[in-house]
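Why this split exists: single-chain examples teach little about how molecules sit against one another. For that reason, every record in the complexes split bundles all components of an assembly together and asks for one structure covering all of them. Below is a record exactly as it appears in the raw files.
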Amino acid sequence: MVERSKKKQTTAFLLILIVLLLFMVPFFVLVINTFKTTAEFTKSPFSLPRSFRFDNYITAISKMNFFVALKNTAIITISATLFNTVISSMTGYFFARKKWKINKLIFMLLLASMVAPFQVYMIPLVKIYGGMLNLSNQLITVAYVAVGLNIPFSVFLYNGFAEGIPEELDEAARIDGCGMLRTFFRIVFPLLKPIMITVMVFVALGVWNDYLMTSLFLTTTKTKTLALAAFTFLTNHTADYSPMMAGLVLGILPVLIFYLLGQKYIIEGVISGSVKG
Amino acid sequence: MKYFSNNKEASVKHNRIKKNLNSILLFLLFAGPVVFIWFSVVIIPFLYGIGITFTDWNGLSINVNFIGVSNYIEVFTDSVFFGAFLKTVLYVIFSVIISNLTGFLLALAVTSGIKGQGLFRTGFFTPNIIGGIILGYIWNFIFSYALTGLGKSLGIDFISTSWLTDPHKALAALIIVTAWQMSGYLMVIYIAGLSSVPKELLEAASIDGASRWAVVKKVKIPLIRNSITICVFLSIIRTFMSFDVNLSLTAGGPYKSTELIAYKIYQTAFTKMDFGVGQAQAIVLFGIVTVISLAQVYFTRKGRE
């Protein structure tokens, strides 16, 4: 009986493994063809490459301005994520401790503003930041807008978590002579770590992968992010497919490394970021 | 005596002012940056956007005229926009059903007590960490070259011409890619739901001789109703706003056969430079998403009762 169920489980395991491998086929096809010439790819897209030639990667790196794009993406993502972490956690905590009317009102409006799709802000943002303020082609503009768009749900998550931190901890610190600011950074901030990881992962992945919002502000080669660089490379570069596929692999690689290092946190972050209560 | 009490009153007043001032400072310190940025990126653009819908602004001319609700009239009488809406609905229905079924079945399989749950979670979730633009392009290569190559060499007519050049199959391709990406995502939520089903209940059911299917139908599905509500609504909202894959897989083509709402709005605004109409279309999308969100709140509450 035990033996039989073990056998059954092995079969089930193998079955799902096959499903997973089928599921991954697009990635395999992509990767194997980056080591072929375009002629080889169009002739036999599913055959394994005969050797590892990196010519396509070299072409893609120079045509995409890969390292510039990587640097730009990193600057935007890191600055937006860190800034959002500090200000949203402060507000989330503040709203959990001070139930003033104004705080409750702002919190309600924050929740309501989570519903709107980005399309609603798209045209006005271009008009205000690109037109009136003339801030296009600056990385900081994209980081700023990204922070703003991520504020509602970040504050919401920090607030929910801070509600669960006993107020006695704050009081103990206050008796020791700490003001609210010092209490927050010395006592509360470290306790927020689990939710912080969640929010940071969600924000960072969203900003890193964003195409639409970023494309509205960054148009010069010098300021392009990875998503934009991959897009321009693939739309402007016709008929020579193998370097394009190498470009896609390069676009995936940084985030894939990040994923393999912290998949548990990343999956949790992405899921709880969108399920939000 | 009188003088004394006045002094006391003044001091109380002084204290109150000091306390108020303190509160304001505290508010500015803790909530000031958030409120400022949120206002400048979300609230002001939102209100400004509503304003735009009542004008004929095209992004270039200095003359902007107030034209009342005619942008909205244009949106509601535009058969192309309505067509995009119908295509979106079709796309949403198929994507939501396929990805929820796949996600749920995968979650059932993964939680059935087999080894390597973590591996499968990580594997099936992978498409969700990659941007839609890149995923769309990967599948573009698959549909345009890899599958056609396979079809030609094996003599399968069905895939020997690219799906992306056929108006009907292109929408199907879009649905396949969406379902492929989203099912791993929904799977993780379903796994969380299924893991919270008490083991004793499942054991009791199987001791009573319930078949596997009966356990799924009578025990598991009723107990994870909450996860189902979340997954269904999440997938509806996400697919209604789908843009990235639409752009890089089909770019609305062939012959505009796959222009979904979000893509259509982008086209109206930045290709036709018709900002007033584009913004009015965006407000319509906002209305649709709001109604869906309210329905979710309603069904979640109902589920809890």
